[in-house]
Every structure is written in C-alpha cells, then in structure tokens.
Design goal:
Distance between the termini: 18 Å
Shape: globular
Structural class: alpha/beta
Number of strands: 13
Strand order of the largest sheet: 2-8-7-6-5-3-4
Largest sheet: 7 strands, mixed
Order of helices and strands: HEHHHEHEHEEHEHEEHHHHEEHEEEH
Oligomer: single chain
Strand content: 5-15%
Number of helices: 14
Length: about 375
C-alpha cells in the first residue's frame, strides 16, 4: 500500500482495532471524577435547550481559555465555532485562496493540512522547517504572504517558548505577513498555560488567524468542537465563510464540554497524566523495540521516533498491520518530500495505560518476527 495512503485512511482502519497507536485523538476512559458528567446528561441536555446559545458559547470560552491560561482572548471579537478543526482548516484555506496568498507551511506536519491547502491554492505552498521557527531570520519571507504553523507541533512535540514565540510574531509583523496557527495540541504543553499567546499576538499588532480543538484532549465519543479567533483585520472574512457553511454548533456538545473542562486541574490535566504513564512505559522499552525517540523533551500526546529498520516506514507499517497493529508512518508528515519521513513513526499515547501497555508488548512481539 505504501505512502499513497493518507494518514486519515490508516486511522480509519485503526479505529476498530485493539492495538491502535495511530489515531492522534484522545481515546481513553474518563476518570471517575468526570464520569458523573455522563450520568448527568439528561440535565445537561435540558439546560442546553433552555440557555441562550451565545451564553453557552461565552461560558465555554471562559472554561477553555481559563484552563489554557489565555485570558486575552476576551480582547478579540467573538470566537467562531465549528464541529471540527478540519472545518476550521477549510475556512482558513479559503482565506488563502480568496487573498491569493503564498503560504509557508511547517514541516513535518499532519498531511491533511497540506492536502486541504493544495486543493485551494495548488502550488502556492512552500515548506518551512519547524526548526527555522525558532530562528525566523531563516524563513524565506520574500516567498510567502502567510506563515502557517502548528505549535506544539504534531508529530514532533516541537514548540516555541515565550521569547521565541514573541520573536516570531514580531518578525511576521515586520514582514507584514499573516500568521496562522494551529493550537490544537496546546494543552499538552504546560508552558503554553504559563504565558498568554493571545496577549503577545495583540500587543505586537500582527495579522493572525488561529484555530483550536477539544478532540485531541477530551475523550467523549468524538463529541468535540473546533473554534477560531483572529485579529480584527481577518475576522469578517472568516465569519462570512463560516456562516455560509454552518449556523452554529450544538449547544449540548458545548455544555457537555463545559462540564468536563471545569473538572480539570490546570496543573495536572488528565490526558497529560495518562500520556506521562504511557510515555514512560514506551521509553522503558525502547531497547526491545530498537526505536530512538527524536525529541526527548516532548510532552505531547504522540511520540515521534526513528524506527531504525532498513525498510521504509510505510512498508514497516503495512507489515505491522498484519499483526493487527496500527501506527502512523512518518512519510506522510513530510508532505513536501515523503522519502524524508520514511525513517520515522508516530506513536499515539492518549490511551488507557493497560491498553497502551498491551499494544507496546504486541509491537515488541511483532517486530521480533520481522
């Protein structure tokens, strides 16, 4: 099958398998302190019907951005909601198309970002190495009109600290470029709760569009929302595009998420507890797996590794599927050069620890047969 398969296609097959280490969404059993929310669904449903929709949206933003340490979101125009970040990405891609923009997209990154952009702006996409984001003088500014980045990055866990983030924002402002940011993995990086990115974006007066997502963090049967914020300069265009495709998201889903989010400890978000346990077990078995972790400092919900085999990652993944094991090959994350990613695999960590342990043990066994 090889690298012609998209990552989402691989993940669709993995959804029905026991040993799924491919899907990057949260797939875990809710902790006891959040299970009461599910038992209270009839009340939440009735409250969702009775409460004005804009009030529920406002309450969601207060809960989510409060947990995320981003109070400056209040200084921006109202949040625009979608049922998933793929819709937010489609809205962003339409902006690029309407504005006839050349886009610098970081690499590696999830392949659907590049694929959606290609359908809208075809060849006007330039690869920007994630490492250059920390040293923005190395970004080819004269070749782009917008810089589109994912931080923390999927799959590597790479992120910009406060100084690096401000430096990049300042450079975008100086170069008069639109800065577009995928913040979907923000709650996996504790540093991103300790400084307010929206405050920096506002202070530096840069043109920006961001989108975020709940599906990478909370596992509630894929009930999730995506949402967008922007500088005033781009608000009306993203609102107009969104209004053409969606009236509103379900107030029930928003209210359900509000109740889940309010129970999280900002200093110890549950998914990060799970991933720390699973990351430790995975790394304890690196010798048996003969894998090498690329970013030892990553706190993400995924692990990016060198597989250290003499075959491409896409071929290795195909072989592992015969054992009922599903992983994401690195090739597709290098949307501009598949061969560059054939030495990597991405491992999803957001699982119940007992299931993840079983998957790692089965992976050790399967690799020993190859």
């Amino acid at each position: 099958m090889g690298n012609s398969r998209k990552l989402t296609e691989i993940q669709q097959h993995a959804l029905v398998k026991t040993f799924d280490m491919s899907v990057g969404h949260a797939k875990y059993t809710l902790p006891d302190y959040q299970k009461g929310v599910i038992e209270n669904l009839p009340f939440i449903f009735n409250e969702s019907i009775k409460t004005p929709h804009k009030e529920i949206e406002k309450t969601f933003c207060e809960a989510y951005f409060g947990l995320a340490g981003q109070p400056s979101y209040r200084e921006l125009k109202p949040t625009i909601f979608h049922y998933s970040t793929s819709i937010s990405l489609e809205v962003l891609a339409n902006v690029f198309r309407i504005k006839n923009m050349r886009v610098g997209l970081n690499t590696p990154t999830f392949d659907n970002l590049a694929d959606i952009l290609k359908r809208h702006i075809n060849s006007n996409i330039i690869a920007v190495s994630e490492n250059s984001l920390a040293d923005p003088e190395n970004i080819p500014w004269n070749q782009i009109d917008s810089l589109f980045i994912t931080i923390p990055n999927n799959p590597t866990g790479f992120y910009l600290d406060e100084t690096q983030f401000r430096n990049l924002v300042k450079k975008c402002k100086k170069e008069n470029k639109l800065l577009a940011i995928d913040f979907c993995f923000r709650l996996t990086e504790e540093d991103y709760q300790r400084f307010d990115q929206y405050k920096i974006l506002i202070e530096e007066q840069v043109d920006f569009i961001t989108y975020e997502d709940t599906g990478k963090i909370w596992s509630i049967a894929d009930l999730k929302v995506g949402f967008m914020l922007s500088s005033d300069s781009y608000y009306q265009i993203i609102k107009d595009i969104s209004d053409d495709v969606l009236l509103n998201v379900s107030p029930f889903i928003l209210n359900l998420l509000i109740n889940i989010i309010r129970l999280e400890d900002p200093e110890n978000i549950y998914i990060n507890q799970l991933c720390n346990i699973n990351r430790a077990y995975f790394r304890d078995n690196l010798g048996k797996l003969n894998f090498t972790v690329v970013n030892q400092n990553s706190k993400s919900t995924v692990e990016w590794v060198l597989h250290n085999r003499n075959i491409p990652a896409t071929e290795l993944v195909d072989k592992l599927e015969t054992f009922g094991l599903f992983l994401s090959p690195g090739a597709q994350f290098y949307w501009n050069n598949f061969n560059e990613g054939e030495k990597y695999l991405r491992i999803a960590l957001a699982r119940d620890p007992n299931k993840f342990k079983q998957s790692v043990d089965e992976l050790i066994h399967a690799l020993s047969q190859n």
